[in-house]
Amino acid sequence: MSTHQTGFSRRDFIKLGTVGGITLLLGRLPTAHALEVNSGASSTDWIGRDGKAKFRWDAIRKVTGQKNFSFDFRSSDLPGWPQQQGYAFMLKASDAEHRFEGVDISILGDDLQPDKLLLQKDLAEHGLEAPKSMGKRFYGEHILLPQGETAPLLGHPVAILFYKDYDRFQAAKRKLRFDTNVVKYGEFTGPKPPANYGAGRFVRIGGETPYDPPKFAPFQNGSLKGGFHGNEVVWPPFKPDNELFIPEVIKRKRGSGFEDSLHASSLDPTVPEQAMDAAMIIAEDIEQARHNPDKIVLERHGFSQSIDPCAMEPDNCTAWYDAETRSLHIMTATQSPAGVASAAAAMVKDNTQAPVERIILLTGSTVGYGSKDYSVFPYYAIAACLYSGGVPVRVANDRYEQFQLGMKRHSIAMDVTITADRKTGQFEILKGFYNCNGGGRENLSVAVSHVAARGAQSVYYFPKSDLATVAMATQAVEAGSMRGFGSLQSMSITEVMVDELANELGIDPIELRRRNALREGAQNTQGGVQAGDPRIEEMLDLAAKHPLWANRDKAKADYDAANPGKRYGVGFAQVQQVYGSSGDPSLLVLEFDSDGKLSMRHCAQEIGTGATTAQQVMVWQALGKAPDHVDFGVTEFPELPLTSAWADQKLQDEYSKKDPYWVPSIIPDMSSSSSVYYIGFATRQAARFLLEFTLWPAARAIWSQGAGGGPISSFNVQFSDLRIGPDGLGGAGMKPIAFEQLAKKAHEMGLITGVALHTFSRWEWASAEFDIPGIGVRTLPIDALAIRYGDGAPDALKQRMTTAGYDFIKRNSATYPPTQRSSAGPTTYTPAAYIVELNVNTFTGQVEVMNHHSLMDPGTMIVPELVSGQLQGGAAMGIGHALMEELPLYEDGPGNGTWNFNRYTLPRAKDVAVWTQTADYLPPLSETSPPKGMAELGMIPVVAAISNAITHAVDKRFYEFPITPKKIKAALA
Question: Quick one: which of 521, 505, 538, 351 has its CA closest to 422?
C-alpha cells in the first residue's frame, strides 16, 4: 500500500478491514509532539526514576498551547493534505411542527453567496444518506432534512453552505445567525419524531438468600421486550394489532448487554410469560405491603434534566476527498474512531458523486464526557467534502452551534417504589419505570435506558425487582452518551428515597444503608455477581465517623443560630458505578531494541482522562522503564491480522476452535471508564509477558555469570521474588539490573524482544492456549499473540517472523465467556460516597456548597493525581447538575439556536468548594488489587448528597433536578 500522497507511512495506520469494498485505515493525528515522537525519541522527563508521574505525558503541549486537539488543526498542518482549505456551516430547523419548504439566502446578496449550497435532494441524488452501520435509525434517516418533511428534531440541519475563503464564510455565517426568515416552513403538522426507540423490562425474584439461585432473573432466564401504541408502552403477551410497533433489538450495539437478554427472550415464548408472571407477583406483593402495618411503601416521582456536556472542544471535522487516489481523508474529534471509519464507509460506499476506495481517519486528543462517542457530526463534513471540488472542508461548531446540534444528557422521568420491613429496615422490593427522552435521533438512547435500569439499585440488595425502561423519541435535541450514562439519573433518585425511608423508619441514614448493602457474592438486579469485595460497608463505616457527618446536628444548631435567614445542612449519598461495557477489547505492541529503546504502539486514545499517561506508567511498573517511542489512538497492528464478526454462542464456539484469527471485537471505544482496567489489562499482560519470558531469563543469565554459578547460585530466586525499582530489576537479595543491560542480554540470547497481543472481556476474560517456541504450551488471559525474537535468535526462529516482522502464534484454542454472560449486567464496579456541607438562604433560595468530602475505592491507583483530577472535575459537574444546569427540551430549548453560556449556567470555582473539598481513598486490599475505572463515578453521588443536605437544612425533600432557588422558595412558601 502506497501512502506517499498523504505523507504517512504504513506504521501510521491500522487496517480496520473493508466495508463495501472500501479499505478502512486509521491513522495517527500528526500533532507537533506526535511528529517528534514518530521521528525519534520521546522525552521521558515526565516520569521519575521511581516510576511515578511527575506530570502528564501530554502536559507540556497542553499547557503551552501547542496543537493538540483536533479542533486546533487545519489542512495545512497535515502532511500530504492541500495547503488551502474551505469552510462550511449548516442551516438548521428551529421549527419541528411545520413542513420544511426550503431556504432563502437572498439576504446574503451576491457577494456572500456560498460556493456550493447542498440540500438533501443533492445528496439523495447521489445515494448519500445517514450511515446505517449502527442500525437503520441510529444516526437518523437523512443527513439533511428533505424538503416537504417536518424536522424529526429541533436543530436538524437542512442545508450545508460551503465557502472556499474564510472571510466570506464568517460574514455569511454572522449574517444568517438568528434570522428566522432564512429557513422556510409550510403546513403545520405537529411534532413528527421517529418511532420510539425501545422498551425493556427486567424482572428478578431472588432465592431464599442473596446468594441462592434466583427463581427468575434476566441473566438466568431473560427479559421483556416491549412495544408501543403511540407513546404508550405495551408489554407481552402481544395481541394481533396493526398499530402495535415493536422496536428491533440490535444485538451488536455497544451498551449495557441487555440487548442480548432481550433477544434471547424473544426466541423463547415461555420467557415473556414467566417474566410477566414474576412482575405480577411483585405488583401483588406491593399491594399487600400497602395494607400491612409492618411494611413501608414509598412511591416517588423523580426527574433528571437535559444538560449540555460543555466540553472545552466543540464538535469539529475536516474532510478531504482526493479524487486522484479515490481516498477520503477525515480528521475529527471522536471517542470511537473505529465507529467513525465504519460509519463513513457505510455512508459513501454506494454513492455516485465521488467513488471512495480508501478511508484514512486522523484523530487528536479530545474531550467530550461521552458526547463524542458515536456523534453524527463528522458525516456533515464528509458529505460536504464530496462536493467541494477537491478542497478540504472544515466544519467546526461555535458555541451557539454546539448547543443547537451537540448531544445532550438524557432527561429521565422516573416513577419508583421501594418497600421495606419497618422493624428490620430490610429492603424488599424495588420497582421502577424510567422514561428516557432520546430526542429525535436514536443514537445510544436504548443503551442509556438500560443502564438507567441496571444502575437503579445503587449499592443495595433487593430480593425482588421490576425495572422497566423506555427510550422515547421526541422533537428534542438528540441525547446520547454522556458521563453518567443513565445511572446518574436513576441512582440519584434511589439515594434520595433511601434517605427519606431512613427518616420515616427513624434509622440513621448510614445505618439503613449498611443494613441493605450489597455484600460479596450477592446478586445484582440482573442475577449477576459483582467482581471481588464491594467494600460498601467499609466505606459506610468511614463515612459515619467523619466529623462532617458525626457532628452535623450540633453544627446545624450553631450555624443556624449564628446566621439568621440561613439554614445549614449535611447530606450523604453512596453509589457504585460500573466500568466496562460487556464487550471490551484491547491490543498493543511492546518491543525493544538491543540498546534498550522501548517502543509501544497502543489502541488507547487520549480523551482528557490521562489514559495515555497511565498506560505508560503501567509499563514502567512491570519493566522498570517507560517507553521511549509511543503511538496512541491510531496505529497499525499488522502483527495481529485479526478478523471480527458478530457471533451467537454456536458461531463463537466454532470460531474459537477453528479460526485463530477471529476475535469478538478488535478495537475499543474510549468510553464507560474502561481505559485503566479493561484497556490497560492488555498493557499489563504485554509488560508481564516480557518480564516473565524475557527480562527474567536475561536477569537469571546475568546473575549466573562467574565462578560457581554466579551470585544467584546460593539463593533460591523465583519469578515471584522479582521486584522493579529505580535501579532496575532486582529482588530476593540480588543486585538490580538496568533495563538497558537486560535488553542487550535478551537480544544476545535470542529471547523474545517484542510482543503484540489482544485481549477481550465480556464481564469475564477470554483466554487461549498457545504453543510458544522456546517456552512451550501456555494458557494466557489473551486471545491473540505475536512475538518477535532477538538478534541472537537462531535462523529457524527468525524465519517464523513473517507477519510484519513478527511470529503470529496461532492459538490452539480459545475460551470465550458465554455470549449470555453479557446479560448478567455489569459485574465490575467502583464505589464512592459523598458528604456535602451547605447552607440555604431562606430569603433567596440560594444554595452555597461550603464543603464536600468524598470516599472512593479506586483499587490500585496507577497515577493518583489523575484520580484526584477526575474526582474534582466530577464533583464540579455533579454540583452543576444538582443545582443549576438545565436545558428546556423543546421550542425554547437549545434547538432554536439561541443558547450560549449567557443563558446556560455552569458552576464556577466559588460554587464547588474548590479550596475546602477533601477526599479519602480506600487502600487496595492487596498489592495485586487491580485499578478500577472511575471517571464517570466522580460526579454521581454528590448529586443526591446535595439533595439530602438541602432536606437536612430546610426539612423539604426534592426529587426533581436541578434544585433551583425558585423551587426552594416555592417549597418554603
Answer: 505
